[in-house]
Amino acid sequence: MHASYAEYIFGSYKHEKIVTIWQKGNHFMKRIIAVILLLGVVLTAAAGCGSNEQMPGNVTPDAPGIGTFSEADIALIIGGETFRCGEDVTGLLEKLGDDYNYSEAISCAYDGLDKAFSYSDFDIYTYPDGDIDRVSEITVYTADARTPKGLKVGDTVEEMERLYGKDYAEEGVTLVYEIPPKQENAEGASLYVVVEDGIIQSISITAEILVE
Questions:
Q1: pLDDT score at 5
Q2: What's the pLDDT at 186?
Q3: 3-state DSSP call for residue 156?
Q4: Nearest CA among 99, 165, 89, 103 for reference residue 133
Q5: Closest Cα partner for 4 from 135, 133, 136?
Q6: Which terminus of the chain is more exposed, N or C, with fewer CB under 10 A?
Q7: Which parts of 68-156 fold into alpha helices (H)?
Q8: Structure confidence at residue 118 (pLDDT)
């Protein structure tokens, strides 16, 4: 059963936030429709530009192969910068600013404090590594962030499968692509999405993390 490290420590809060997002209902769907219509206009215009080496969607030039999933896929592009789990959280917090709610808890698997930084459209979780707080999980609830292959909130499950294939675990409303852990007593690094009616509501990436 997949459960991110953040869910072990901050689970109830994260569940409430996802439920709140689902409750946006029609307003959220109207935003999705507007984004899809706008994307259609942009793609139609781009089709007339005559490029011989077009890549689908918002795929970056160094994105891994379309239709497959690998460890290189576990990243998010936020504000034009690529962020990965396991990195010092300082750079990500500088990018997102200081308008967040902060919480902490004694780490179950590491020496120190697990921390959570909650923004309106992002949740950041960290684990202690000496004097450094390393990113254990990033969750995004906005189409302003995307994966290197271009997956974003508001996309369909079919688009996800086109980009990453169908080799994922389905756990209720959560679809999980996971890399097998390299350590014992660890949960593998992953990319997972929460969906409602076939539409992606949030995207998360997680580090390989020790668990009890």
A1: 54
A2: 87
A3: strand
A4: 89
A5: 136
A6: N
A7: 90-96
A8: 98
Cα–Cα distance measured from residue 2 to residue 13, given in angstroms and rounded to the nearest whole number: 18
List, as own/partner pairs, every contact residues 68-71 make where C-beta atoms lie below 8 angstroms and the sequence separation is at least 24, other chains included.
68/164, 68/165, 69/164, 69/165, 69/167, 69/168, 69/177, 69/191, 70/179, 71/179, 71/189
Q: Which of 120, 154, 163 is nearest to 20 (CA)?
A: 120
Regarding beta strands 145-146 and 174-178, do their DSSP bridges make them parallel or antiparallel, or are they unpaired? unpaired
What is the residue type of 169? A
- Three-class SS state of 186: strand
Looking at residue 212, what is its pLDDT?
Answer: 67
pLDDT the model gives residue 136:
97
Query: CB of 57 within 8 A of CB of 150?
Result: yes
**Structure-token match 């109830």, residue found:** 12
* DSSP-derived 3-state class of residue 162: helix
Instruction: Give the C-alpha separation, 173 to 77, whole Å.
Output: 24
What pTM value is reported for the model? 0.74
Q: What are the phi and psi torsion angles at 118 (to 5°)? A: -110, 115
| Most distant CA atoms of the chain, gap in Å | 56
What's the average pLDDT block by block, 10 residues per block, for the chain (212 residues)?
57 52 42 42 42 47 80 97 98 97 95 97 97 98 98 98 97 96 90 98 95 74
Cα 188 from Cα 156, distance rounded (Å) = 25
